[in-house]
Amino acid sequence: MFTDWTEALEAEALPLNPNPAQQLAAAARVTARSSRDKDDMALLLDVLGLPTDPDTLTALLPLLPETGDAPTMTNTPAAPALSAHESVAISMHNNGDSEQAIREATGLTETELSDLIADCVLGLPRPAAASPVIDVPVVALPVTNAVQKLLDWAAAHPAAGVRGRAARITADLSELTDRRDSEAAQREAEEKVAKARAELEKAQEELRTLKAGTRTTAAATAAAAPTPIRAGLGSGRTREELAAIRTWAREHGHQVADQGMVPKRVLEAYDDAHQAPVRKAG
């Protein structure tokens, strides 16, 4: 046992009067142990006015925490404090009371009690936080009385999850109703358009038939009409007759053209000349 403090310090090789260099080295070692990584250590040393040369940093690297990161504060929210009813529920559960008895004593729903036990007793992880449920009033829809009563019950339920589900179901029913009405109106409009097109095509066909019948009647009437005989063309005589008349006329001193109309006097003379023997014979 040392009786002199000086001898004890010398025995431990500790300097009695540390110089500034030794003090800076000790401060650098403490800073290194409190740093998260090499960059963080260099910044801290620089702020404290301690050496930051490469040799010093290399010598201090073994003093950094093994993970390379010092414990940092997180933004994990603290667990919410339990209400009096929830505390009673946990206590009754730990005492072995049934869930029915716990719910009757605390007024918690089955879902709320299950979530409370899973969170505070069993330590089960909670699911990812869902978007906040917005309570939407249930709008009456043309559904059966049983479904409407169920929606009314769910909309007035104390559990927010049940109310949210009622709101989602109501919104889905409303969307389906709107879509059904829209598609029905579209089908009705398409049927009207198809009917109008059919009536238009029928009217056009009747018009075409009527026009075709008018043309046929006019053509038949024109074909049935007798062809008028123009006066001075030989009174319907054939070419052979006219040729014979011209020959006879020239032989008997009448002047006639080779073509065209034969004068009426020549025709009458020809007729008289050829009818006289017949009358004499009679």
Give a nutshell description of this structure.
This protein is mainly alpha-helical. The chain is built from eleven helices and no strands.
Describe it for me?
The protein is mainly α and 282 residues long. It is 62% helix and 0% strand. The protein has helices spanning 5-11, 20-33, 38-48, 54-60, 84-94, 99-106, 110-120, 145-155, 160-224, 239-251, 264-281. It has eleven helices and no strands. The protein has four domains: 5-63, no CATH class; 84-129, no CATH class; 132-219; 239-281, Dihydrolipoamide Transferase, CATH 4.10.320.
Average of per-residue pLDDT values: 74
The percentage of residues in β strands lies in: under 5%
DSSP helical segment count? 11
Structural class: mainly alpha
Which series of helices and strands comes N to C? HHHHHHHHHHH
Provide the fold topology:
Layout: H1 5-11, H2 20-33, H3 38-48, H4 54-60, H5 84-94, H6 99-106, H7 110-120, H8 145-155, H9 160-224, H10 239-251, H11 264-281
Helix pairs in contact: 5-6, 5-7, 8-9
